[in-house]
Structure formats: structure tokens, C-alpha cells
Amino acid sequence: MTRTREQTEAITALSLLEGDDFEDETYLLVARHCYDAQQVPAVPQGDGGIDFYTHNVSIGYCCYGPEVLGRGTTDGVKKLKKKIIEKFKSDLKRILELEETKSGKCKHRKNEGLESVLGTSRLKCIRLFCNWFHDKGLLGPINEAFKKYKKASQCRFVTDDCAVTLIGPELIIDQYPPDDVSIFRLSRPGIAKLLNTVTSTPVGSLPPPQANQMPDFEAKFEILGKNWPGREQQVQRVKDAQIKRWRQCLLLLQKLESDHPQVHKEVERLLEAAAELANEMSLSAAPDANLVGAMVEKLAQMIHAELRGLLVQTTSATELARMMTARLIGECPLQWPEVK
Amino acid sequence: MRDDHFNELLELLSHPNIRPSIEPKRIAKSFYYDAIYQSAIIALCFSVLGKSSDLGGKPTLCMNSAYLNLCQFTAIRSDLLIDLKRWKDLKGKRYDQPLDRFLVLPRGFFTDPNFRDVIRYLVATHALALAGAKDIHFLKSEPNNTLTNLLEKIEVDGLFEVERKTLQSIKDLRISQKELGVE
Per-residue pLDDT tens for A194-242? Predict the structure, then answer.
């Protein structure tokens, strides 16, 4: 089958989405083609086993977007296969109201959550969407498990002839072709998640700043310590926090550069624009004006306005602005010489 | 967002003896988007991996465009060499995957338009020439060729050692056009 470049890129982009991002994107793709598509919110207490349904509550969809890293190796693929099989088996058990004992026996386990979603409707087909399907060996264990579960189940939520299908990103894109909006969205995935990854990375795993930049950085905090006698501990605490943020910024920029070069370019442009603005402000402002605070605020506003859709929350934009500012302090464009 | 450390910094900076200032010109720009750096890496790619060929009777070095893209992307990010080796090791095995399905490669490889833009610029300045949809020729004998000049500079000053080593390692991997999926 010949695909257009846009289709191929959409497949790649979809296969790189993980977790809720993958579920949301597949739901939006399906919803474009099925007027009655209904997403099931995972609150309260989970989604009951299906992520969304269509066709007058007769087709249920379960999505799974496991992590991308490590897939390139044989070991990674084996683990990934196991994870996918286990995840979908667990979804099927919930839909069929079962729990498996250690000996492999299936016992009835009422699923009230799903009852509150489906009511008296019964699914004729369960479609399992996964961001990776490069091994036909996924099918056998899932089909076998489904057969076994159906036999043991009271089948309150599925018809007796209910079928299960496993669908990877290629078929998702082929069956639910993306429109221009979807292609645009897929090509610019959210970076809020990336920001979370960076902020949760342990300090020891963050890239270190260049050694030749450290003396200037140290000197800035020495000035602070000298001017605030008795508050040395506080200065040290602030300094440590700034180094951490600076290193987080370096990691974020590395990730943006290799994964989202367009966003990286945009962020660099915004930083420069905010610095220019802060410079202008400093020329006209009173000596006691809060230049750094004003710059961070302006940068956060610009990030939020320009990267809307990528950084939905204002807090993410503020966090990003503070990281960029820490980098400016570290790499010297932002200084605070002592005024006599 | 509650952040005591940042607010503490603002408070410390409010001392009358401290006057923060910013010099926007000192912001270090990323070299990844520097067209000259990218051109230099492309020149190195041809020098290390290009095959002798000719175009209209003129001697050239030729590379497949997809291969050139992969080489320059990896040369700039030498950490990716390990992943590329892994991908190559899987060739012919059960989990053999085409490059665009080998998801360890950063998605920037698929989405960054920089490479295409730089190639367009080099073609416009007659440093490179396109032949068909797939091949790119380095017109090494053209007078005042930007890439030839860059290569001379690189040689004389011994620049980009890491990138050169990475390209040599890619060469040793012997990736075929079939493996790249561009036959």
C-alpha cells in the first residue's frame, strides 16, 4: 500500500505518542469519522475498562501507548510485547468482569464502573489500539485469552459473538485518515509532558554546565552574600536552586533540539525577544525596578501566547521562563554587578 | 506557581547595591541551526562517505539524499551512533525494522526542515546539484565552491574531530540503500 508523506509522518508521530496523549489523539481521529464517538472519562475511579465507544455503544475501544524508549533492541521488543499483552488482557478481564487467580482460574468480579458507562448495552466488538504493532505474535495470546475469558464470563457487557481486534498506528491512520488539523497537532506534540520529565529528573542525571562558566556564576552569588551579611545560608540555597534550574534548562533544550526542533527554535527566539525587552526596560526603569521578575513575567506571557496548545497551562510557561532565566544567569547575559 | 527559591532570589536582588542588567547579545545561540556549521558537516559527509561519480562530465562526489540526511543528523549528535549500531545489528533478524520505524531515533530526524533548507541553499549556490529524486552531487571542481572552501578550512585547522570520527564509524557500519529503504 502506498502512503503519502503526510500519512507516513502521521503514523510515525502517532506511534511516538504515549499514555493519555495516545488515547486522546486516537479518540480525536476516530471521533472525526464516527459522529457518536464518546470518550469515557477516567473519573471517578478509572474508566471501567474502555476508553471510548462508537456505533451506538456497540464497539468499545481500549488504547495503550507504552513508552518508546528501548524498543530498538531485541530485549526491548520482547518486554514491550509482554507489556502490551498483559495490558490488553487486563482490560479484557475488566470488560468481561473477571479476575484471574494465581492458578489461572477466572472468577466473576463485578465491574460497577463499566455498568455506569454502558448501562444495558453490550459490545459487539472490542478494538484494541496500540502505538506499536510490529509482531503478529501479539495476536495469539490476546485471542486465546479473550476466548477463555468469554467462556468464563457472564457476558453482561459483550455479546456472545463479540470479537476482538488489535490495531496499530498504521491501520489507525489508514482507517481514520487525519485531517489537516490532526496532522498539525501530531507534528507538534505537547511539551508540557517533556517539562515534567525534565523537572522530575534527578539532579545527578542532569547535564552539567560548562566548567568555564562556573567562576562568573559563583561571583554573582558572592556579591549577594557580601551584601546580605547573615543570610549566607539563604544565598547558598538560592544558588543551589538556580544551578539545578540551569541544568534542567540544558536538558530541556537538548530534548527539544533533538525531538522538537521547531519548538526549540521558537523558544530560543522568545528568549532573545524577552531579553531585548528587559534590556529596554532597564534603560528606562527606576534603579530599584524588579528587572528579573519583570523579564520572567514577560517571557512567561510570550511563551504562553506563542506556544499555546503546546503549553496549555500558564504554570508550565512560568516554569519554562524561570528555567530560561536560570540559564541566562548561569551563562552570563544576566548579571548584577555591585553598585557602589 | 509557588516557588520560594525564585522569590527569594528576587528579594536578594532587590538590595540597593545590586543592579541587575542584561546583555541580549551575549545569549549563546544554538549551533544546530547555524547554516555554515550544517554546511561544514554536509561537506564532511561527502568527504568521508561520498562516492566518486560524475555529472555532465564533471567529477563529483555523490550521496543518496536519505543517507546524507541520516549521516549529518548523526554526526551532529554523536550519541546516536550507539542507536544506529543497534538498528544495524537487528538487520536480517526477527525484529529488523526500517529506519522510519526505529523509534529510538529522535523524532526531530523526521520533522526538522533544517537539512532540506540547507541543501536547497547549497544547490542554489551551485555547491551541490540534484540528480533525480534521490542523489545529491558535490560539485567539488566548481570554482569557489562553498563546501570545498569549508573542507579546506576544516583540514587546515583540524576542526570537527568528533563529527569526523562519527562519520567514519557510520562508514564502517556499511549501511546499504536497501537497508535504508530507499532502493
Answer: 777 788 889 999 999 989 989 999 999 999 999 999 999 999 999 999 9
Cell 468481561 sits on residue: A96
Work out the minimum CA distance from A103 to partner chain B, whole angstroms: 32
Amino acid, res. A208? P
Q: Identify the burial level of A84 via C-beta atoms within 10 angstroms of its C-beta, where 0-12 means exposed, 13-18 middle and 19 or more buried.
A: buried
Are the C-beta atoms of A127 and A165 separated by less than 8 Å?
yes
Cell reading at A124? 459487539
CA distance B4 to A15: 39
CB pair distance less than 8 Å for A228 and B15? yes
Which chain A residue has the Cα nearest residue B13? A224
Q: How far, in Å, CA of A129 to CA of A14, rounded?
A: 11
User: Per the structure block, which three cell numbers stand in for A309?
Assistant: 496548545
The answer to whether the CB of B50 falls within 8 A of the CB of B61 is yes
B77 touches chain A (CB under 8 A): yes
From residue B14, how far is each of A224, A287, A298, B10, B112 by CA, in Å?
Answer: 10, 10, 19, 6, 42
d(CA A11, CA A5): 10
Name the residue with cell 512560568: A318
What are A248-287's pLDDT values in tens digits? 999 998 888 887 787 888 888 888 888 888 888 877 766 6
- Give the C-alpha distances (Å, rounded to integers) separating A36 from A27, A58, A153: 12, 11, 28
Distances (CA, A) of A137 to A77, A92, A125, B94, B95: 12, 18, 21, 12, 12
ipTM: 0.76
Whole-structure pTM value: 0.65
